[in-house]
Design a protein that fits this description.
The chain has about 140 residues and is an all-alpha fold. It has three helices and no strands.
């Protein structure tokens, strides 16, 4: 402790006993102990705050690296990037796309509507069904859950 050997500590204790006196020596040692405790607490607090600052500095560095990686990853790859990883791009990338499947049917204007069967005319089989003057678009019934 502070580079003091046992014999040197004994000499200091004897001098303190003579100078202070046996009556006030415990009070003085208690005060010295309290100061030492406060000094140790302040040193611990300083060490913790220094460690926190170092940790915060490391976190800031990591954040900067992550942000650099994010910006680098969000940039589109260039032809040189593809060549660096061993991928050769064709000059016309759309040339090797095949026509797969059929196109959806094209809907032309509906043909002349034929009259509905007699069963759907409301039960009047002998009455001719009225033909609509304009084509009626087909509607789909959808049910929502």
């Amino acid at each position: 402790m502070f580079g003091i050997d046992g014999s040197e500590f004994l000499v200091i204790l004897i001098v303190a006993l003579v100078v202070v006196g046996p009556k006030d020596l415990p009070k003085m040692l208690r005060t010295i102990g309290q100061w030492a405790g406060k000094a140790r607490a302040m040193a611990d607090q300083f060490k913790r705050s220094f460690d926190d600052m170092a940790r915060q500095s490391e976190l800031d560095d990591l954040r900067q690296e992550v942000n650099k990686l994010k910006t680098a990853a969000s940039k589109p790859m260039t032809e040189a990037d593809y060549k660096a990883i061993g991928i050769d791009l064709p000059t016309n990338p759309l040339s090797n796309i095949e026509d797969v499947g059929a196109a959806p049917p094209k809907l032309d204007a509906p043909a002349a509507a034929s009259p509905p069967p007699a069963a759907f005319t409301g039960g009047a089989a002998s009455a001719p069904a009225a033909e609509p003057s304009a084509p009626v678009p087909a509607t789909h019934s959808t049910t929502s859950a």
